[in-house]
Design goal:
With about 550 residues, the protein is of the alpha/beta class. The protein folds into four domains: about 5-145, 3-Layer(aba) Sandwich (Rossmann fold); about 160-220; about 230-395, Heat Shock Protein 90 (2-Layer Sandwich), CATH 3.30.565.10; about 420-545, Response regulator (Rossmann fold), CATH 3.40.50. Helices cover about 50% and strands about 20% of the residues. The chain is built from 18 helices and 17 strands. The strands form three sheets. Strands 6, 7, 8, 9, 10, 11 and 12 form a seven-stranded mixed beta sheet that branches. Helix 5 links the parallel strand 4 (about 95) and strand 5 (about 115-120). Helix 6 (about 125-185) packs antiparallel against helix 7 (about 190-220), helix 7 (about 190-220) crosses helix 12 and helix 8 (about 230-250) runs parallel beside helix 9. The longest helix has about 60 residues, at about 125-185.
């Protein structure tokens, strides 16, 4: 039975294919054309590797049949040249060889060959091989295109989320900051209640924005853990602080208990651990109408040296609970136990899915036990290493002074005011920062762009610089770099710089630190976050640059 081009037509099943046959034997080239060419298959020939390489660079071939032994440039050299050309490295190569030498064939595969045939050629066999290679090549090309499209869409989504984050955080900074400042003025009970609702609504919107960004990072695989040493008590107490207030407003009992070993310094991502505790406690308070919410923290020590301890977080409530069917959907994104929960209690259904993702990232587990109308208990187990042995931690704590009231000499000079330079182009944000800092009596200088920030820095001496990231004329990153260059040139002491920005994604934080900032403070700012950020910037400067900081009273 003769083999015709119709055979490969049948196996290729594609609109059109271009085949390049490279061999120094004119008879083989002629046979290749007669056996393979058809209305849907275009066959071109070349007598050596040099001619073939030129043809490949000029044409658009789907597959190449390449002889290994040729003058001028052999098959090995041709495949190596194709591998160095980004446009040609994706063209599949079927090797034609007269050698009965498996070592040569192995070398051909190492050089980039996809398949091989041995002379004398069985045209039926090579027809099948070409069909197989072409189908695979087209499938791989489709996969590459789909991957490229997905990556492009992911980049577009990242840009959109970054812009959305910045544009929403900027007005949120005004809403939350001004509501907080207004709440500290003389107000009637009704006015204070309304201002509190404004601030709480702004904080809810901020948490929703943060959840959306976290989910996007988790989906893209871009959420990473930052391992630092942290105090367990301080971390957990900070995580539940706001929830204790929320529970009190609903007349719920809120308990926080630490087990015997649940103390000391640990290594882990304290921000994400706090986020897990805060999300679980927030849900417990939200879905409990009456009764109590309890957070219990325990640590089980490893049985053998060198292993990690286990942090156990239990959050229990006497809330609505849920059944087994609802529990199966509980950790899905944008889902709650049922639609009535969203209508009655609100929320996005993201908190628990984020907790589950963060727990798994830290190689831990999360589980839940619940009874409808009686309550729920969520339990998270995380492997954590202690930063120091527990007995050493207890000794260290016992050595700390018990009083924080220093003796001040009668003739000592009063502490000078903290001099702060704020570079911020948005008038509302300027006002928010000024009102937050007003109770501390700081000496505040405000400019609206990076150029004026640099001019003000050159003209005066500041203890701290608060720098917005996006500003006209010169942005905060360039202004920070210019300040650091000026300090280096003029041999000036390093001034602490805090990037105060609505650009709150990880890459923006990294850009700020790389530009020379000491800390990053995400908008919307609160009195607490601004005070902690300024203190962190001062502490960083003192620790790393021997900076003599002035007196500053924290929030």
């Amino acid at each position: 039975m003769s083999v015709t081009a119709a055979s490969i037509d049948h196996f290729v099943r594609t609109d059109f294919a271009r085949v390049l046959v490279v061999d120094d034997d004119p008879i083989l080239r002629e046979f290749a054309v007669s056996h393979l060419a058809s209305p849907s298959i275009e066959v071109s020939v070349a007598e050596d590797g040099l001619i073939a390489l030129e043809a490949l660079r000029k044409g658009d071939f789907d597959v190449a049949l390449v002889d290994l032994d040729m003058p001028n440039m052999n098959g090995f050299e041709l495949m190596e040249a194709m591998g160095r050309d980004a446009r040609l490295m994706g063209v599949p190569v079927v090797v034609i060889t007269g050698r009965d030498d498996m070592e040569a064939i192995d070398l051909a595969f190492a050089a980039g060959a996809t398949s091989f045939v041995v002379k004398p050629i069985n045209w039926r066999l090579i027809t099948h091989q070409l069909a197989y290679v072409l189908r695979n090549s087209r499938s791989e090309a489709a996969i590459r295109q789909a991957r490229a499209a997905a990556e492009s869409a992911s980049r577009a989504k990242s840009v959109f989320l970054a812009n959305m984050s910045h544009e929403i955080r900027t007005p949120l900074n005004g809403v939350i900051g001004l509501a907080g400042a207004l709440g500290r003025t003389a107000l009637s009970d009704e006015q204070f209640e309304m201002v509190s609702l404004i601030r709480q609504s702004g904080q809810t919107l901020e948490r929703f924005l943060t959840d959306i960004l976290d989910v996007s990072k988790i989906e893209a695989g871009k959420l990473s853990l930052q391992v630092d040493t942290f105090d367990l008590h301080e971390a957990i107490e900070a995580a539940v602080h706001l929830m204790q207030t929320a529970a009190a407003e609903k007349f719920l009992k809120f308990g926080l208990a630490f087990g015997t070993n649940a103390r000391g310094l640990f290594k882990g991502d304290v921000v994400r651990i706090r986020q897990i505790v805060s999300n679980l406690a927030s849900n417990a308070v939200k879905f409990t109408k009456e009764g109590s919410v309890a957070v219990q923290i325990e640590v089980t020590e490893p049985e053998t040296d060198g292993e990690a301890a286990t942090l156990i977080i239990k959050v229990s409530d006497t809330g609505i609970g849920f059944d087994k069917e609802a529990r199966a959907r509980l950790f899905n994104r944008f889902e709650q136990a049922d639609g009535s929960i969203t209508r009655q209690f609100g929320g996005t259904g993201l908190g628990l899915s984020i907790c589950k993702a963060l727990t798994e990232m830290m190689e831990g587990t999360i589980s839940v036990v619940s009874i409808p109308d009686q309550g729920s208990t969520f339990m998270v187990k995380l492997p954590l290493s202690r930063s120091m042995p527990l007995d050493a931690f207890d000794i260290l704590r016992s050595m700390q002074p018990t009083t924080s009231n220093p003796v001040v000499a009668e003739d000592s000079e009063p502490p000078r005011l903290l001099r702060i330079l704020l570079a911020e182009d948005h008038p509302t944000n300027q006002r928010v920062v000024a009102m937050i800092l007003q109770p501390y009596g700081v000496d505040l200088t405000v400019v609206e762009n990076g150029v004026k920030a640099l001019e003000a820095f050159e003209a005066g001496k500041f203890d701290v610089v608060l720098m917005d990231m996006q500003m006209p004329e010169m942005d905060g990153l360039k202004a920070t770099q210019a300040i650091r260059a000026l300090e280096l040139t003029a041999q000036l002491p390093r001034t602490p710089i805090a990037m105060l920005s609505a650009n709150a994604m990880k890459e923006h934080v990294e850009q700020a630190l790389e530009a020379g900032c000491d800390v990053h403070i995400a908008k919307p700012v609160t009195p607490e976050s601004l005070a902690k950020g300024i203190e962190a910037a001062l502490a960083s400067a003192v620790a790393n640059h021997h900076y003599d900081s002035p007196t500053y009273v924290s929030a």
